[in-house]
């Protein structure tokens, strides 16, 4: 439908702009503009009205003044002039430039209804018998300004509706480029004349004062120019008649986060005006409407539905249907010469047409489109609640009566580390390519997907956060390196079968980690199916930490031991299964790491991204619960150790816990993790902190072992290398310790009997808790 309405208008681009574009692009900027308090003299009286406006450039188009009938107004006398101001505004208005009170007198108070209906003298040109009247308007308030509003209906939405209702003329005296077409400032641009008009009125005694205000004002998101409101003939989509259908369609969709669907987007639909579809630009898709006028003055309108129909009426088949190519094409219809209306479509209408336009529906691919409609999933940022999401819904409800999507993820915006908007000018962010080169694309992607961004919230991106994710993901490669290192030593090979090993596993650690993996798979799958990406990624890194710092660490001795028994084979099979299945879990989120890990673990030359998702397997809840309990005992025991100032390497006599066993015995784990000699039962966890000389020597032994292992690494030895070892010291405690614990030391550091110093010897002098010694090692 074509109607004339007051629209947001860009004078630089000479085209109207929709409110949604302004809101979506956050196009408001802080501007300092003149505001003026203008006098309007009431006919046949020495009294005036004092009206305030922040747009002095609209005063030459004034045709009315509005008050509120129920509001109280005071007649103020100042400097020999009497004028009405809303009583609530008097003290605020009657101030000088320094906000000091002026000397004035209040003569009387009246209700607005006593002023309504009176006439006043024109400030500039007389606009006819229906103009220059005092009207009542509900939108008038005393909270700002003077409680009296100057009306220029061509340049204000509420003013325009009031003028139509009161039969007041609408005067337009500004052209498409923002220049005056008549009056004292003819030919000047409104923004250039704005300050001049305000100052001129004060100089000529037609205004009380000029005040400069700093306020949020809309600017064009394309050219940056200040926008104006302007009465303009345009073509609109009738949103009001389908608004209830749009609300119903929205209610039937799934959003992440859902509060945007029920809150912001619902409100956008409820408050939506009819959609201004037409633009006065040159290079865009023309609205396919031609019009002509019969001799009797009636209009003939033709709307084309496709290229074939266009050719049928015009005889032309074009290669390019942009406005420059069609605007001069005419044809006859009903004896009338038809001309293009000269307007193009809002590009958001084309964006809203994407679901069917991509298939050239309904002219082609009818079955394909209908089988894929509505889309399973779309994603865009939160500003698109007024942009793409809205245009999609409006267009598709209008055509098909339903929303064109089933599921929607609405993201927030990425801000700089300080929370401010990223700015090339301020250089307050690191180029994402640099971040990916430094830490990996997978780390950057994982961070983005796991952040509040995917839940509609903004996220302050700090470089260190990408680094933190990279460090945590590197634990996966650490487990891979550990696995391959020992698998190569033992000659363990993958048999090509990736199946749930749960039924055959006997070691509780294996049962636990496989159950944890299956628990992870189920949780990720559930959250992804709900389009909750943040929730889907949340459990991944905790699992990686569990697998690395609990399962692998506690299983090290199973890989180290020389016997190739079933327990060692189960450890290889379990870790291989965990890492390979983990690659499937990671595939949607860290695609490069997942593909490399999968290929390395399986030898498969086909990408993991061509495989089917593998469902979760068995979960042994009893083992899971028991392991959780044991780990809690360990955490509590370590906390007690820390409070007592006892290193973990220092053995203790015992720990007491409430439960000693479940699906498996807790004692071996507690003995290892808490470094105790015995585990006892008690109502609450406690440790024996008494240290005997024997316990102290064993603690010293463990420190010596740690230093020998460190020397092995510093000397470049492989993990499987056997060594010859000598420990030299004059300290009797060291000598006794090494003698008592020789077998344990040699076993831990892979030492063999016999030592003869050669040029291949590596040595290191140590001071361990006040005990001096010299360690010497060389390859056996």
Topology:
Layout: E1 2-10, E2 15-17, H1 19-24, E3 28-41, E4 47-53, E5 64-67, E6 72-78, E7 81-86, H2 90-93, E8 105-111, E9 133-136, E10 149-151, H3 157-166, H4 190-203, E11 207-218, E12 227-237, H5 243-251, E13 254-256, H6 258-270, E14 275-276, E15 278-279, E16 289-293, E17 299-303, H7 307-314, H8 323-326, E18 331-333, E19 336-340, E20 344-345, H9 347-352, H10 354-357, H11 366-371, E21 375-381, H12 388-400, E22 405-411, E23 414-415, H13 432-439, H14 441-450, E24 459-460, H15 463-490, H16 508-529, H17 533-537, H18 540-560, H19 566-586, H20 591-602, H21 621-644, E25 652-657, H22 667-674, E26 676-681, E27 686-687, H23 693-714, E28 723-728, H24 732-740, H25 742-749, E29 751-752, E30 762-768, E31 771-779
Parallel strand pairs: 4-7, 5-9, 13-22, 21-22, 23-24, 25-26, 28-29
Antiparallel strand pairs: 1-2, 1-12, 3-4, 3-11, 5-10, 6-7, 6-8, 12-14, 15-20, 16-17, 16-19, 18-19, 25-27, 28-31, 30-31
